[in-house]
Design goal:
About 75% of the residues lie in helices and about 0% in strands. By secondary structure, it is mainly alpha-helical. It is extended. The N and C termini lie far apart (about 50 Å).
C-alpha cells in the first residue's frame, strides 16, 4: 500500500490539533514477531508498492501545507517553509520506520506466496505505473469520498437523530431518566 497523501493528511489532521493536550498513547502489547523470512518478503513488497521514495515524499508536501494551515499557520508561504524545513525532513528521516510498520502489518495478514505475487505484479510495467500513479489516485479517491460523505451526511444525520431519540438518549449519550 502506497503512503497516500490523504492518509497522512487524515492522520496528521486528527493528531496535530490535539498534540498540545494529548496524553501519550499506551503502547500496545507486543505481538508475536512474524517469521523473519516472511517479514523480509513483506518489507520488499511494501517498498515496491511505495514506488520511488522521493516521489512519494514529494507528493505529501502540498497536503502538508494544508495541514499547517489547519493547525493555525494561515499564511501559505510560512506553512510551506515549515513543511520544507521541518515536516518533510522528519518524515524522510522516519520513512524506513513506516515501511517496517507496514511490512509487519502485511506479514500478519498475507502469506509469503501472496506477498511474492504482489511484488511480482509491482515489478511489471503496469505495477510500476500503478505505484507511480498512487498519489494522484489517492487524491481522486479522497475527493470522491468527501463528495460521497457530503451527499449522504444529511440523510445519516437525520437517521442518527431519530436513533438517538428512539433509544431515549440525550445529547451527552446518557439515557433520559424515566
Amino acid at each position: 500500500m502506497r503512503l497516500s497523501p490523504w492518509l497522512v493528511g487524515l492522520c496528521l489532521g486528527v493528531a496535530l490539533p490535539c498534540a498540545a493536550t494529548a496524553q501519550p498513547a499506551p503502547k500496545p502489547a507486543p505481538a508475536a514477531a512474524p517469521d523473519p523470512a516472511l517479514l523480509k518478503v513483506a518489507r520488499e513488497t511494501v517498498a515496491q508498492m511505495q514506488g520511488d521514495r522521493a516521489a512519494t515524499l514529494s507528493s505529501m508536501a502540498a497536503p502538508m501545507v494544508g495541514m499547517m494551515q489547519q493547525i493555525g499557520i494561515k499564511e501559505p508561504d510560512k506553512a510551506q517553509v515549515l513543511v520544507q524545513e521541518v515536516v518533510m525532513p522528519t518524515l524522510s528521516a522516519h520513512y524506513d520506520e513506516l515501511l517496517d510498520i507496514q511490512a509487519r502489518g502485511f506479514a500478519t495478514v498475507l502469506g509469503k506466496d501472496d506477498l511474492q505475487a504482489i511484488a511480482a505484479f509491482y515489478a511489471t510495467p503496469a505495477g510500476k505505473r500503478l505505484a507511480a500513479a498512487q498519489p494522484q489516485l489517492a487524491q481522486i479517491q479522497l475527493a470522491g469520498m468527501q463528495q460521497w460523505m457530503q451527499a449522504v451526511a444529511p440523510e445519516m444525520q437525520g437517521k442518527l437523530i431519530k436513533a438517538v431519540q428512539a433509544h431515549g438518549w440525550t445529547a451527552g449519550g446518557q439515557a433520559k431518566p424515566h
